[in-house]
Amino acid sequence: MKKTLLSMSLLVIPMFGQTLQGVWDATVVSNGLTIPFRFEIEAKPGLASGVFLNGSDKYKSSAGSFDGKTLKLEFDYYATKLSATYDGKALAGEYGRGKRVYEFQAVPHVEAVSEGNAPEIGGIWEIETNSPKGEKAWRFIVEQKGNEVNASILRIDGDTGTLSGGFKQGKFLLSHFSGARPGLLEVSVKEDGTLALQQNGKMEYVARRPEQARAQGLVEPSDAHRFTTVKNAAEPFRFAYPDLTGKIVSESDAQFRGKVVLINITGSWCPNCHDEAPFLAALYKKYKKDGLEIVALDFEEAEQLADPVRLKAFIKKYGIEYTVLLAGETGEAKEKLSQAQNWNAWPTTFFVGRDGLVKGAHAGFPSNASGPLFEAAKKEFTATVEKLLSERQVSSR
Hints:
Blueprint: E1 7-10, E2 22-30, E3 33-37, E4 39-44, E5 47-54, E6 57-60, E7 63-66, E8 70-75, E9 80-86, E10 91-97, E11 100-108, E12 123-128, E13 137-145, E14 148-154, E15 163-168, E16 171-176, E17 183-189, E18 195-199, E19 203-208, H1 210-215, E20 229-230, E21 240-242, E22 248-250, E23 260-266, H2 271-287, E24 292-300, H3 302-306, H4 309-318, E25 323-329, H5 333-336, E26 340-341, E27 348-352, E28 358-363, H6 372-390
Parallel strand pairs: 1-4, 23-24, 24-25
Antiparallel strand pairs: 1-2, 2-3, 2-11, 4-5, 5-6, 7-8, 8-9, 9-10, 10-11, 12-13, 12-19, 13-14, 14-15, 15-16, 16-17, 17-18, 18-19, 20-26, 21-22, 23-27, 27-28
């Protein structure tokens, strides 16, 4: 597949003897596929900072340097690093952490030229599927301006991030990398008006307009508010785990009594949890005075549980002020969340009323890449919280 390279702007001041100033086309290699992406760097003597982009969302490095030859950046909330050498013509190196390391390259930018007149594909589509999570359909959200497209595939757990690109050789060539979830997508318009999608060079899907999908008897995408429930709604949702100071916090503590409590299943390794965190942080700040509490049950890899540096950076980045508990390793989540029914999406949030009982759940969370569906999810989520806050406490825990 021919590469479609997106621009990367690198700003480094001349005093280093070498300069990276200008626009660059950058890529990482994931599972043998070359993924173009957009990246921005700012620098001053001895220091540098980089920014991954997911639409309008920015993921900025926590530390960085450039010595005239080697660019080094750290992203502590991902627990990743970028190290690349500049030879006067190009950047080459690697990005990632542990066993998940991507080959990184960047060359001076050449303006991409779209070919021909692109067909109109903007709007919302549905993708027939049979996912391991039990879904029968996903949504494909497309924002189009001429030959240029921003798009995203929305599943029950969240979306792919913003897939961006243009029209070439009779198809749209889109890609995404924001420091996580690298992806490629080819989109072609078929004679019957459907879209042929090829994801990451191998997975093939058909996308239809919702009205066409209904006419053909296809099932709608799963409802995030009905996907996950609890086995016994008459039983309080139990938890008892340490916070970052080692103090055990449980649902029976006084701070939650008579409050509306959101129990959020999350992990700092999870891209869709990064999408949700700033929304929850803002929601808590707005409604805490009205009786809202949020408890994040955080599941991590073993080394992160022993020393949760990434989680601490995650909390700092998104300005999280609500309670965060170390619930265990990711592989333990299913067993520890034994009260949940059909739970398999990261993140998932359970809504607990003032009486201490679960009133509902929301599976997954989209990013701004999902456009109107992102706005709708935030509105619906907020409406649920406001409704619960307005209800009078009828019993105590």
